[in-house]
Amino acid sequence: MMFPIWPQPSAASLSRRRQTAPAWGKILFEPTFEGDRAETVVPTPHGPIRSAWERTAADIKVRLELPKGISAKVILPGQRPLMVKSRSSWRVNKAGS
Predict the structure, then answer these.
(1) Which DSSP symbol is given to 78?
(2) Closest by alpha carbon to 83, among 94, 74, 91?
(3) Residue 95: its pLDDT value, please?
(4) d(CA 35, CA 44)
(5) Of the candidates 39, 40, 41, 44, which lies 20 to 30 Å from 9 by C-alpha distance?
(6) Phi, psi of 6 (to 5 degrees)
(7) How does pLDDT run across 52-94, given as a tens digit for each residue?
(8) Closest alpha carbon to 92 in 61, 63, 65
(9) pTM of this structure
C-alpha cells in the first residue's frame, strides 16, 4: 500500500484538492503553483488520486489522475472550470499562475 509523502511546503496545500462528495466520489482540484514543482498521491476508497505540476521555460504542465468512480471539478488560472473523470493534463500560461 502506498502512503503519501508530503514535501515542504505541504503538497496538499499546493494541489488544493478536497473532497466534495461522500467517499471521495467528487473532488475539487485547484492547484497553487508555489515553487518549481509538486507531486502528490492521496489514497481513497476508489484508489489513489495522483496529481503533479511542473514549471517549464514556457508554461506550467499540470496532470491529474483519477481512479474509476471519482470525478473532479478542475479550476486552473486563465481557464474555464471543467469536470473530468479520468487521467487529464493541461498547460497553464505562467502569466496566469
Answers:
(1) T
(2) 74
(3) 67
(4) 27
(5) 44
(6) -100, 110
(7) 999 999 999 999 999 999 999 999 999 999 999 999 999 999 8
(8) 61
(9) 0.79
